[in-house]
Amino acid sequence: MTTKVIGELMFQPLTTKEIKPKGWLLRQLQLQAKGLSGNLDKFWPDIKDSKWIGGDKEGWERVPYWLDGFIPLAYLLDDEDMKARAKKYIDAIIDGQEEDGWICPCSKEERGQYDMWALFLLLKVLVVYHDCSKDERIEEVIHRATVHFDKHIDQFTIFNWASTRWFEMLIPIYWLYERRQEDWLLQLAVKLKAQGFDYQSLYEHWPYEKPSSFGHWSQMSHVVNQAMAVKSLALFSRISKKETDQRFADKMLEQLLTFHGTATGIFTGDECLSGDSPTQGTELCAVAEFMYSLENLIQVTGDVKWSDHLEYIAYNALPAAISPDMWSHQYDQMVNQVECSRIEEGKQPFRTNNGEAHIFGLEPHFGCCTANFNQAWPKFALSTFMKTKKGIACTAFAPAEVETTVDDQRIKVHLATDYPFRNTMQFTVQVEQPCALDLDIRIPAFCSSATVNGKPAKSGEYHNISKVWEDGETIDVILHYESEFINRPENMVAVRRGPLLLSIAVEEEWNRIDYGESETLRVYPHCDYEVTPTSSWNYAYIDKGIDLQFHKVGEIPFNPVEPPLEASAKVVEIDWPQKDGVVTRTPADRKPVSGVKKIKLLPYGCTNLRMTEVPFIEL
After folding, report:
1. What does the pLDDT average to over 433-443?
2. Could you tell me the residue ranges of all domains in the chain?
3. Cα–Cα distance between 381 and 480 in angstroms, integer?
4. What's the fold here for domain 386-480?
5. Residues 255-304: tens digit of each pLDDT
6. Cβ neighbours for 188, distance < 8 A, ≥ 6 positions apart
């Protein structure tokens, strides 16, 4: 008889059996499958020859990171080959589980020194695999591993990455508890919090208003840890039932964005928190993990603001750090990024990363992002719709379809849209027979106004339609928003249009880096590139008029060559120095050095080189 219960989620996530991507979102996932994500197991030693499957290469986070995205990608695309390749890894991992439940690839003598972060990540992956495949082995595998872990941390307390990421283990713990209702699981959650890093105390007495000195690395200011920890106490609130725990994410983000924020809605970190300069970088792992945190906050709280923020990251910071064909990526992306070439050691702008962290390649600087960025698009696709107590909520706008059961009735909701490149949506509801259903449609807070089937809808809330639906009924949604100049530090501005950030586009040239004939890993198509500018970038806005042109969303949605949306603005050239491939944080002088020009702006996510935070000059 259980004595404790965990709090219910406001929104229940749906599975790959229930959600299917459509339109441009489907094409984006297909690109990912054809690129690095869908091919790492064929050539990258840390996946292909990992200790997780009996090899001799990395046996810690990289295989679980990769599987965390590869598995839902395979099932969202219903790709039988990818499913079989995922199963090969899952089978090997399960076969490697020892009799006492230990599942990570290390000897018994090494267990006390093994950082258990890899276990948290692996068990999360097994949850994803179960939800996709319904593999009946998974529950018992997770149970045995968790029973052993409970005993293990009584002797060996968690440390390093496991300590700063303790809350990630809550996800498989809750999943298991919902199936087995065993009280010791919730006691384990409490032990984890007690042993884990105390972010609440850190943010109560915040020591990171300014970035750490160059070269100073710390778990406490590590950008990916912060991106993950945004959801930490909200997850724990399912046990504590404290509103203050749910609201902790607000406190974290307020301080992170105040002191380290960028126009993209995420904070800098290369690898540690690096201030609010647009020429500092943000690690791609932080983008992927921040999205996952926001998705969890949506589930726990049901608050519209987390969906607004999720979309903004997904449509700007995420695609900007990955090449349009998804065969290469950056470790660090810069908001003002006019060149991506190798920088001599000691001259790079990054505080703890090397001078190759911003080139596009297979594993620039370090390979964690190579494995980890794969989760971002598939999990975003799975966050377009979620289940409520009475029906379905559309929590993020992208072309997708959900087919599920509500009160034993099969229902299907299809969303046709080119959002975020357009502002219109059409929902079609299909039912086998007249059916009572609540459909909740999020109206973003950035909208000046919105209509649902021609009637006004309030911004910043879910628009609830509760009715008995007939088969084939449609709902038309129109969101109204304009381009606006948002203020940035150092008297700079950026241009935002609803879910999209707009940047001054810099024409580019891609040059493959030649590592010599002996190189066998970084070869085409998984090779490294330097990207250099072929047009000017040293501009200031002089007029707040932004002219827009809309184009078809092409086969590659986030693409500077065929963008779905482009804009033009009036600017003048100013004196803005560049050194070692990086622009200075601010111009040397804001006086015009040219006449008025009209230049092209593109959605930030469609750019590889760009200027985003620039001055506005009153002529």
Report:
1. 96
2. 35-197, 386-480, 483-611
3. 24
4. Immunoglobulin-like (2.60.40)
5. 999 999 999 999 999 999 999 999 999 999 999 999 999 999 999 999 99
6. 146, 149, 150, 173
